[in-house]
Each structure stands twice: as C-alpha cells, then as structure tokens.
Amino acid sequence: MKIDQEAHTSHISQKFNEELEEIRSQLLEMGGLVEKQVQDAVDSLVDGDTRLASEVRKTDKTVNQLQLEIDEVCTHILARRQPAASDLRLVLAVIRATSDLERIGDEASKIAKATLRLAEEGTSPRGYIEARHLGNHVRQMVKDALNAFARFDTPQALAVLREDDKVDLEYRSATRALITFMMEDPRSISQVMNIMWVLRSLERVGDHASNLAEYVIYLVEGEDVRYTKPDKIEQVLQHDDEEDQKGSST
Amino acid sequence: MKIDQEAHTSHISQKFNEELEEIRSQLLEMGGLVEKQVQDAVDSLVDGDTRLASEVRKTDKTVNQLQLEIDEVCTHILARRQPAASDLRLVLAVIRATSDLERIGDEASKIAKATLRLAEEGTSPRGYIEARHLGNHVRQMVKDALNAFARFDTPQALAVLREDDKVDLEYRSATRALITFMMEDPRSISQVMNIMWVLRSLERVGDHASNLAEYVIYLVEGEDVRYTKPDKIEQVLQHDDEEDQKGSST
Fold this sequence. Notes:
Two copies of one chain form a homodimer.
Chain A: H1 14-47, H2 50-81, H3 85-121, H4 128-151, H5 154-184, H6 189-221, H7 230-249
Helix pairs in contact in A: 1-2, 1-3, 1-4, 2-3, 3-6, 4-5, 4-6, 5-6, 5-7
C-alpha cells in the first residue's frame, strides 16, 4: 500500500499528474505561509511589535483565500478525474490538511490580537519566555509535518506525533506557573490572562501539526491512524516495512 | 444549482442512492450524539456530577469511531461511485462535517475533564450560570445546524451563522466578569480558571456549529461561503432565489 513520488509519475494523463503535483505544492506553499504566521505572531508578542501583529492579522485573509482555492482545485479533480487509490488519498489528505493549516492561521491571528491588546493594556509581567519556548516547539512541529508531507516521510510524521505529548506537558507546566503568579499578583491578572490564551493557542497549533502528520501516514500507508497512539502507529509502520521486504525478496 | 431531497432519488443506481442516504443519516446520528455530549458535559459541570462527566469522556471514543466509519464510507463512495455535482458536494460536506462534529465532541470531553478537576480541587465560587447559559446557546446552534443539514434548509443555516456573533459577545462578557472576580478573590483563581477554559470550549463549539451551517449552504447552493459575512451570504441566497423564479417563469 506504499506510494512514493515515482508512483505519481506513471499516470496516463500528464495533465492529471500536473494537477496532483500542483495541489501538493500549493499545500506546501500554504504551509510555509502559516508556519511564518506562527513565527511572526510569537515574535510580535515577545517584542511588543504591533506593526508585525497587524501584518499577521492581515495575512490571515490570504491564508483563508488559499484554503478556498486549493479546496476548489481538489473538488475539480474529484469531479473530473475520479481519482482512485493513492491519488484519491492525496486529494483527501490535502483537503483535510488545508483545514488544519487554516486553523493554525487562526490561532496565529489570535496571538497577534493578544499582542495588540497587551499594547493597550500594558505588558504582562510574566509568560513571554514560556510563550517563546512553546512557540518554537510547535512551529518546529508544523515545519516537520510539512517536510514529512513533502517527502512522504512516515518516520518523520511519527516523530511529530511523539512531540505532541511533550508539548502538552510543557503547556500544562507553563499555565500552572502563571496561575501561581496571578495568585501572588492579582493586579496583573488581566495581562497574564492574555498570555494564557496565547499558550492555549500554541498548544492547539501542536494538535493541528499532529493532525497533519496523521494525514501523511494515511496518504503513504493507506491507514487512518487518527486516535491511534504513536506506539501502535509505529507497529503498523514496522509491519508494513516487513511486508515490503517479504514482497521484494520473493 | 439547487438540490433537494427529490433530486437524490433520480439516480440510476438505487444502491448509490442508498449509500448517499446512509452517510447523511449516519452524520445526523453522530450529530445527535455530539449534541447530547455537549448537554451532558455542561450538566455534569453545573451539577458537579462526576459519574456523568466520566460517561462523557468514555462516549468520546464512540464519537471518534463514528467519524472514522463515516469517513471510510465516504472514501469508498468517492472511489467506486465517482460522484459529481450535488452528490460530490454531499460527500465532501459530510467529510468536513464529521471533522467539526468530532471536534465538538473533543470540547465536550474537555468540559467533562473540568468537572472532574473541580470535584478534586473544590468548586468554583463563580461562573456556573454563565457556563449554563452559553452552553444552552451553542447547543441550540449545533441542533439547528443539524436540522438545517437534515432538511437542506439554507435560511436556518444562515440563522445559525448569525447567532455566532451573539455567542462571541456573550463569551467575552462572561470572561470579563470572571477576570474581575478573580482580581477580587485571588484565592479562587485556580478554580475559576477551570470555568474559563469551559467557556472557551463552548465558544469553540459555536464556531464549529457555524462551520456546519456553512457546509449546508455549500451543499445546497454550490457556493463555498466560508469567510463570508452573513449579510453577504444572505445576498447570495436571495440572488439564487431570484434566478430560480426567473428560470421557472420562462
């Protein structure tokens, strides 16, 4: 059930090939833009850069527009090309992935909004280091998930899924610290709450990156691994490798 | 570009009809379950009912499983039936809708988790009334969106979209009140924060209900109205009605 880039070049219709390649590269382009949105949003927060925050909010419209465009191309492919097997999985994976990328864009936009609110209300006495740290972590997950998509790389997708537990731990430890701080300094609650929402948004970005990684495994292996634990997924991948080796030795 | 239930009965293949009817009814079944999850989660919170909360968390697995099953049937329909036009839109709308329903289920599960945490840490001195109120509001949105789906009812879908602004206002007013309360009574911050996350989850449920409503309009009208303001959507619907009347009078 494995596919690779070569498999996609064996189509009778050259035009069809180009269309499939097109949605894949459009998705990666959208992904690159969204990854930058997360980076810029966290930068704007940490640096108190309202100009950058406004830019992030403006760019969110471009991200939404990209989703609509890619989805439309996918719908056309489904209607006219009637793809099957791995081609169909690619189209479905792209449709699902645009939805997660768009939601990552939304979270970046919410973070930028927090930057703007904090510029009005006064900065938070705490939480920027935690936001920077968690931000770097989940941005890397998004990047790795997109690389896994670009290279049909299931081990990398699995690695992204394993990161999510660490992100959740980091998130919980950061919010606990901020709650303790708010109890000691209640006058800063309103400001610190802005950071709390930012941390929540970043944690969600990690969830969406995990979803992207799951689609890569679906795309390559034909297995829907949503709600499957990473250790179980690893078994599935190994089993598949063994089958492949058996296949090639006979 | 309009479809109605009759249109779906004119297929050459009776089996294909049955399959389309099947995914639609499975989706509505999943929707009913998810709607109940939201209700039960909020009930468990307000009544401090940990048994009910545990049930909600257990049922979340069933919701996830339903999503996988419906998505698999949809994929099979795409691969074997190669649907076009309104049939294709139905399948795509169902795939998108299962994703939002599943995420509503996740939010219900998070609310149930808050119930369990509050049972351990002690109840919050504030916020239950707000959670009940917001919970009723968004649950009604989910219900209305599902009814719109069941009846291909675009005016009802539009009404759901209009509710979302009200939900956002209600959410913001409730969180502001809780922030003020925490500043006055910092010892309760940890408990009140649990309610803050619940309100956030409920606000997200409203967003997902809006997404469902958008899919109904896409399904019936063939127009992708994501990121379109309700007033603009209303114009699209009216324009479509006028076209229909012109069409029938010639």
